[in-house]
Each structure stands twice: as structure tokens, then as C-alpha cells.
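Weekly sync notes, structure subgroup
Attendees: PM, AL, DS (notes)

Item 1: joint prediction request from the bench team. They want all two components modeled as one assembly rather than separately. Inputs as received:
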Amino acid sequence: MNNKVYNNRAWLLVLPMLVLVAFSAIIPLMTVVNYSVQDVLGPNASFFTGTEWFRTMLNDSALQAAFGRQILFSLIILAIQIPLGIGIALIMPKQGWQASAVLILITLPLLIPWNVVGSIWQIFTRGDIGLMGWGLRELGINYNITRNAGDAWATIILMDVWHWTPLVAMLCYSGLRSIPEAYYQAARIDRASKWAVFRYIQLPKLTNVLVIAVLLRFMHSFMIYAEPFVLTGGGPGSSTTFLTQSLATMAIGQQDLGPSAAFSIIYFLVILLVSWVFYTTIMHLQKDKNSQGGA
Amino acid sequence: MSWMVWTLPTAIFFSSIAAMLTGMTIWELRSPSIERKGFLPISTTRGDRLFISLLSAAFIHLGIIGFTSLSIWIALALSAVWLLVLMRWG
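Output from the run, pasted for the record:
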């Protein structure tokens, strides 16, 4: 049965990429590890501190709070964007010029650079000249993102939903388009309700794209930086300060290279763990599917 | 290389990772790994199990350094035992 000859020499073609990755990722990462166990004051002036920075960072209450906010933010935007994206994909036109027009309209937010998104929303929410800020104020709502933490949170979430739901919608749309018409015909013969079609045909067929959508959106929201930085600067107080911003303040603002290196490694490990779990899940889903298809 | 501010412990750390990867490559060439299922919920190859044990070793170290006053050597010993268990039965 299995007497194929495996030739792995094609892997040699990956070597140039490996060299590139070594210089852009592996060597810098090694340097970060080296910094994380020392107090580097300048060239030839460093003291070995061992695990001290890690202990400090793990017990830093400001960082723990930022970590909590980060997870909360990711969960909230996932809970909104995934169902909303599926919903939008379901009502998008399937063919004709309307399909192209809607696709282009929906893609527009994805084309805007992140810091520009922050600036757009910063102006949009201003009380004096911004349409949303002014409008809410005229309606008698005391809306102020520089003073109320709740308003700042709501605005950041709204901004992220506006910016990234299109990605989820497009992924789902492509997933929906790949379902053969025969499934729908069979459902019509069975007089299946719209909900049954969604629950037993569309949703199962969307599983793979949804895992990818969740992975992309989680990773990205977990590393969000430019948008909240421009919109609220982490305020009011520290109510919208996420991990990336704490890290940038520590490393670039205060030049605390040792602690920020330790913190980067912890951050990296968390992201590595989450990515690995998602990756394994995706591969598993595909493997299950293949074994079903082969049987 | 001085800009990389090497220290002896980190040099030992990266050398042992490199040694593990080299060793695994030679082992894989000598006798290719067969994917199997142990006590982990997924079927894994040797490389998968090494990765899982290294990643969990990182979190064992972080947990012990950050939230207990135990020595880092206990974390290392725990991780080594976990690595062996995982490689054999995982």
C-alpha cells in the first residue's frame, strides 16, 4: 500500500526564507531574551539580574489590569463581529452588479491604515465638530470619550467593529459561495425552513472559514495598538490602555529595556500558545473532514 | 556580537534548544516518527510533543518564578520530568 518514495529535498528551497527569518525574527528574539535577564545600562555596562524582571512584570498590577482589559476587548469584539459578519454575509447579494458594488463598499474600511482609522474616529467623536459627538450631545446624551471610560470603551469597540467586521463578512461570504446549489435544492425538496438551512447546511460548511476568522480577529485584537492610541491615548486614566501600549511606553518612553524585554517574552508566549491551539484546531478539523471524505 | 549582550545562562539555554533540534533531526532521519495518540487529546508526532513540552515548560517556569518563592531549579526539574513523560506517553 504505502510504498511511495518520499523525497524531502524540496525543503532546501525554503533555506533562503529561513535565512531571512533568522535575521528578521530569530536573532532579534534571542537578543530580547538576553536583555530580559540583564540590566543593560550601555555598551559594556550590564548587570545580570536573572529572573527578577520576570517576577516584577508578572506581579505588576498595572500590567495585570492591561492584560485583563486586552482579553475582555478581544472577547467582546469576537462576540459582536463573528455573528454580525455571518449575518452580513447571509444578506449580501449573490450575483449581478449589486454583488460587486456591495463587496467594494464593504471592503472600504479594510483599506484604511490603522492610525488613520484612529484619526477618523477621533474627529468623528469630537463634541464640537464631529458628527457623532455633536449629534449625541444635541440629543442630550453626555458623551465624552476623554472623560467617561464607558464612552471610550464603547467607541473603541464600535471603531473596531466598523473596521474589521467586513473581513469576517468577506470570509463568510466566500465560504457561503462555495456551497453547491444542490444542497439548497435538496433543502427545498424537504421544505426546510430558513433556520434549518442555516443550521444544518450553511453553518457546518462555514466552520473552517469561521475558525480562520476567529483566529485572525483574536490575534489582531490582542495586539491592537494604533487605533486606541490615536483615539484615546489609553485614557481616560488607564481605562483603555492595552498591553501593546503599556509595552511601548515602557520600552520606548522610559527606555526600561530589561523589564520590557521580559514583558515581551511573556506576551509572545501567550500569543504563541493561543496561535498553536487555534492552528491545531484548524488542522484537526481538516483532518477529520478528510478522513470523512475518504471513508 | 556584543550588541546581542550574551550571558552564559542564555547561551546555555539557546545551545540546548539548538542541540535538541539537531538531535531530533538526526533521530527523525534515522527512524522517521510515526504519528500516534497518547494521553493528549490529539495525535502527535515526536516533534509536536517536543514543542508542547517546551511551551508548557515556559509556562511552568513563569508560574513558579512569578507566583511562588520556589527556586527556578524546581521549575527546571519539573519541566524535565514533564518533557520525558510527554515524549514517552503523550
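Discussion: The mean pLDDT of chain A is 87.
Action: AL to compare against the crosslinking data before next sync.
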